[in-house]
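Quick board copy: two proteins, each given as sequence then C-alpha cells.
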Amino acid sequence: MIKYLFSLSLLLAVSTTCFSQVIFTYGSNAVDKGEFLKAFNKNPSTEPDPRKAMKEYLDLYIKFKLKVQAAKDAGLQNDDNFKLEGENFKRQLTENLVNEQANINQLVLEAFERSQQDLLISQIFIEVPLNSDTASAYANIQKAYAALKAGKDFVETAGAYSTDPAIQQNNGEIGYITVFSLPYKMETVVYGLKPGQFSAPYKSAIGYHIFKVNDARPAAGKRTIRQILLPLAAGATEAEKAQVAHKADSLYQLAQQGVAFEQLAMQNNLDAATNNNGMTEVGTGQYSPGFEQQVFSLKATGDISKPFTTSYGYHIIKLLDIIPVGKDSADVMTKAALQEKIIQDGRLNIAKEKLLDKWMTATGYKPAAYNEKAFLAYTDSLVNNRPVTKVAGITAATALFSFAKQTVTLTDWADFVQASRTSNSLLLGKNYKEALNQFTRSSCSQYYRNHIEDYNPSVKEQLAEFNDANLLFAIMDKQVWSNASADSAGLHKYYQAHAASYTWQPGVSALFVTAANKEQADEVAAKIKANPANWKAITESYGTQVYADSSRYEKEQLPGHQSLRLEKGFAGTPEKNEQDNSWSFIYITEVHPNSAPRSFDDARGLVINDYQQVVEEKWVETLRKKYPVKINEAAVASLK
C-alpha cells in the first residue's frame, strides 16, 4: 500500500510538472503547456495532420499573446468603455451561474410538467388581519382540518369555518388554475394533491388555507377573444337590468345576422379597461370561473357566445384564436417562455435565497463584536432622523461583520438605513435585529457576486478570455484596421503595385430593388421595365417603402435564389425575403461578358483588406523585437 501511494504521488507530481512546462516566452512573460493546450483544444483545426495543426496554432497563439501584451502596455485596459463591457459581461456570467446553482433548469421542467394540467380547486380560508393575533385563526383552521379528516364534507366545512363571505356564495370554489396562477409555495401545495385530496393547513401572508383538488383536466392553454361588455351599475334596478339585457340580445342577433363583430365592439363596447375594442388574451386562472367557463366553451375560431352575465355586467365574446400549451419540454421557445415567467414569478428568488446559506460559509462570513445596545440606539436615531453622534459606545468605523476580503462597518449599515428607512417594514417596525440580518444576507449576496471568480475557476477563465479578446480588438483597430483604412497614400500605392490582382469576372451591372410587399415590388418592376433610365426617381417616389441599389455583380455574386437570364433589360421575379416580409427583384442594366480590371474605387474594399494584412505583419515584426519570443522546441515536440 505504501509503495502504491508513493507511486501515485510521483505520477501526480510528474504530470503536474509536465503540464506546467514552458512552451514559449515573450519578453518577460511565459506560456506553459497547460495554457497552450487549453487554448488549442478550444479552437479545433480542420488540418488533418495534428502536428502541422499544432505548429500553425502555435504561431497564431504567439501573435495573439504579443498583441494582447501590446494592448496592456498601451493601457487600453484602463479605458472606461473597456471596463464597462467587462463589468457587464461579468454581471451576465454571474447571473447565469447563480441561476444554474439555483437549479433554474429544474424549475423550468417543474413548471412545464405543471403546465400540462389544469386543476379545479376549492379552499377553506380563515383571514388573519395584518399585525393581529394568529392564535384564534390557527385554532379554527386546525378544527376545520380535523373535521375533514373525520370525513366531514368539504363544502359544508368551508361554509362553517371560512371567514371570506365569497366562500359562502361559491362553496369555496376558486375555479381552474394552472402553473403561475398562484404564488409558488401555494402552487406547490396544490400540485402535490390528487383529485379528491385536500391539503394540510397552509399559512400565507393573509391567513390560513386548506386546499382541495376537485378535478384535473389537460391544460386548456389560452384563448384570444374580442368582447362586448355592457356594464351594470351596482344596485341597478330590475328595469335597468332588463334594458341592458335587451341591448345585449339585440347586439347578439345582429352578430348572428352577419354584422361584423369588430364593428359592434367598436360602437358598443363600454369596457374602458380593455384595449383594441375589447380584444384580450385569456388564460386559465386569470379571470372569474364563470367568465373563463364561457371563454373555454367556445370550440372554433369565429364562434360567438350568447350574452351572459358576471358581476361586471353583460358580455358577448368572440373567439379569435386558440393558443395551445407547449407540449415539448425540449422546445426552445417553450423553455424560454417558461424561464422568463419563472424569473418574473419570484420562485427563482426563493431558490436563490437558499443559496445564501452556502454563500455565508463560502465567503468567510464572520460576525464582529460590538456594543449591541449602542447599535440599536444608533439605528433608532438613523430611522428617526436624529443625530447619531450622541450615541456612545459605537462609531461609524465600528465593524459589524466581515467576509474574506471585505469588512462591513456601521457606515455601510447607515447607508442602507438611510436609503430604505421610509420603505423597509422591518425598520419601520423597529425590528432592527431582523433588518440587520436582511442587510447581512444582502451584503453576502453582493460580495459573492462581486468576487464570483474566487469561487468559480471557470468564470475567472471566461473573464480573462473576454477581456483579452476585447484588448485584441481594441489594439487591432488602433494599430491595423483604422490605420490601414485611413492611409490613403498607402492604399493607392498598394493598389498600383497589385492592380493585376483586382479584376472583375464576367457578370452584370444591375439594380437590386426591395419593396415592402409583393404588390409594390410588381408595380415598381413594371415601371422600371418601361423606363429604366428613370429608376432612381421611380424608387424614391415610394419613400421608405422601396429601396434600390445599383451595383456590378460577378456571376457567382448575383443576389436571390432564382436563375437569371444574363441579358440587358431582364427583370427577375420578385422573391420574398427570409428575414422579413419584404420582396426583392433584380433588373439587369448591362452585361459584362469578359473579365476587366477593377478601378481603385471598385476594388477599395479588397485593397483595404489586403493592405491591412501587410500593416499587421509589419506591426507583429516590431512586437517580436519589443517582446523577444523564445520557443522551447523540446516542449513543443512533446505536445500531444
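And the next:
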Amino acid sequence: MVADATVVEVDALTVALIPTKRQMKYVLVTGGVVSGLGKGVTASSIGVVLKACGLRVTSIKIDPYLNTDAGTMSPFEHGEVFVLDDGGEVDLDLGNYERFLDITLTKENNITTGKIYQSVINKERRGDYLGKTVQVVPHITDAIKNWIESVSSIPVDGKDGPADICVIELGGTVGDIESMPFIEALRQLSFSLGDENFCLVHVSLVPVLSVVGEQKTKPTQHSVRELRALGLTPDLLACRSAQPLIEGTKEKLSQFCHVPVSNILNIHDVPNIWHIPLLLWNQNAHEAIMKQLNLSICNAPNFQSWRKMAESYDNLTSSVKIAMVGKYVGLSDSYLSVIKALLHACVACSLKPSVEWVAASDLEDESARSTPQAHAAAWKTIEGCSCILVPGGFGDRGVPGMILAAKYARENKVPYLGICLGMQISVIEFSRHVLGLERANSEEFDPETPHPVVIFMPEGSRTHMGSTMRLGSRRTFFQDLNCTSSKLYGNSSFVDERHRHRYEVNPDFVETLESAGLKFVGSDETGKRMEVLELPNHPYYIGVQFHPEFKSRPGKPSALFLGLVLAATGKLQALLNKA
C-alpha cells in the first residue's frame, strides 16, 4: 500500500489520493475453463452484496490485451466501448460496475497490458531504472502492483477517502499466455498483503453432458489445479451451471479443489442478471468473503430494495416493442449500455422491453433486390414497433437504411431517438427529404458531398484513431427551456452527459435547417456545436450528439430513454404537463 501519501504517479499521470489510514482489502475474481462465463456480472454482484453490508466498494478491470484501451477495438469482437466521465474508453464490464454499484470510475480503473508496458517503457526511456536490465519480473509485475494499489485508493462513490474493498476482475481464463504477468503480480500482491486482506473468487463452469445428464466437476478441478500451479489458491468457487448444483457435486468439488462446501457458490441460469446478487446473498457469499477478510458487518445488511427490483421485473406482463436499427445487431453486447438503458426506462414504466433487432442494411433499396425476404422482414418489424432507436456507430455500412428508418419515423409520427450517429442521420435525412439537398451527407461517408451537413471536428485527428475523439463528460446548454429534452431533464438549463464522436453538425447549415422546421435546442458553451435536436409537432423526435445510455442506472433511468418509452406508450404528455 501507499501509506500517508497525497500524490501517486500512475503511468505518466499524477493522481491525487486521500491519505490511507487503513489497509485496503481486495477481492480478486478470476475465470477458468471457458471465457464468457460472466465474471464481470459476478464481480459486480459481489460488490453489490458487500455494499449492502455497509462497505464502500471500488472496482478494477484487468484486460490482458496489448491495446492501451478499448477505443480502437471492433464492437463485433469485443462488444461496446464504454465511455467514462474522464473520457476513458474502456471495457464494457466497467459499465456493469458503474450500473450495479452506482459509482463513477476513472480510466485508470481499467488496466491493460498495453498501459503497463507503455508506462514501463516510458520510465526506461527516461532512465528511471538507472541502467538496470528491464524485465517482466520485477519491473512489469511491480508496475502492475503499484497501479492496483494506487488506483484502488481513488474515491469513486462521491465520498471522501478510499473505499473499504476493491473488487478486481482478471479478464480471460487462467492459463492464457497474455495474463501470466498479471497472475504473477497478483500472486506477489496476495503474499505481501496477507490472507486477511486478499480473497480470491474463481469462476468456473460445471457443465452437464446431454449423454449422461451428470454435472461434471473435472473442468473446474483442472482449472483450480492450473491456478494453484501459478501460486494462487481460491478461497471461494463461483460455479456457473444451467441448473442448481446438487449437494453431491458441491462435496466433490470441495474434496478435489480444497474449498469448504460453504464457500462453493452456485450461479445458475436466472430470469435476469439482477438475480445474481440475490443468488450470492442467499448463499451467504458476503459472510464468507468478510470472514476471509477478517471484517465485521458495520450495519444491518439491507438488501430489500435490490430484491424488490429483481423480483418486480419478473412479475411484469406488459411490454413495448422497440426497433433497434443498427449495424452491429449480430452481437447484442455491441449495444449493451443502450439495452440496459432501455431496460431501466421500461421497468420505471412497469413494462418489459421487447427489443426488435433490425440490421440497417436490410432496410436499404439494394436489399430489396439482393435479399428480398430479409428486406420485407426488416420493414415489417419497423412497422410493428412502437418506437425507433438509432444508436451510435462508425463507418458507412448501413447508413442508407438508417436514413430510411429516420424518414419513416418522421413522416409517420413514430417516436424516434437518435444517439450520436443517430442524430447525424436525422440531420442528413431532413436535409435530403425536406430541404431537397439530394446529396447531403456526412464527410465521414462522402468526403466530396456538395452539402456537408455533418463535418469532421476541427480539433480531431485524421492520422491517429485512439483517444482522438471528443470524449467524456461535457456540458450541454438548453437554448429553449420549454423544449421536451429540458423538461425530461427536470427543467434544467444544462445537462452533463458523456460523448464519443469525431463528427458534428455543420454550423453553417443550422440556420437553414431551423428555418425548415428542425430545431436545435441544445448546444455546447460556444453555442456553435449542436448537441440536441427536436422536431416540433411530433410525438417524440429527438437526436443527441452525446450518449445518455452511459449514465443510466437501475432505478435512475436516463431521461431521454424514459421519454422514448413514455412516448411509445402514449404517456409522455402527462409527464411533460407536470414538468
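Board note added afterward: The longest helix spans residues 136-151.
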